[in-house]
Amino acid sequence: MDSIIFDVDGTLWDSTESVAGAWSRYLQEKENLDISLTASQLKALFGQLLSDIAKQLFPQFEESEQLRIIDGCCQAEHEALLIDRPDVYDGLEETLKELGKRYPLFIVSNCQAGYIEVFLEATGLGHYFKGHLCPGDTGLAKAENIQKISRDYHLSEPVYVGDTMGDFHACQKAGVPFIFASYGFGEVKEPWKTIQKPADLLEICK
Fold it and tell me: Measuring CA to CA, how many Å separate 159 from each of 56, 61, 107, 171?
């Protein structure tokens, strides 16, 4: 192991309450759609590509309209998160501080452009991470972004920490060991390692 790559939602923080509120307000007030979303609904969707989320939420529209609407949701979300500033998971900053003494830390998430930057600004954790990638930046899915960040930063033995089967499959495709954050949004049956809280990484990554 020479580096650690993290997912965001369900791994570093849970922003679903704030995002559900922001998306619902945008859809009702700006798009005149009678849609009210909940945090539990978003937990079942987060981790997927944004275009796939849009297909499930707005099946009555053509793809171009789905993407336009979800983009508006995301802009409203960014504004809300910088105001609400959701908490990170307990013990996360202390864990990142210790891990950062031994390993370079990165983020790869299936999110829109700007979301990771909002997370870093809202939490003040930006100085712990050496770099980040998402489909909104590259047009690539998670597996390809894991491989790209490994090439860009010359990582030879990274591990990935995430919380969904989508993360697990991406790691299998990228050839990277997967650490399952069981406190997050999903279920994974056969990960390389499992953590119950962020601080458990300190034992795995000795």
Answer: 31, 39, 11, 9
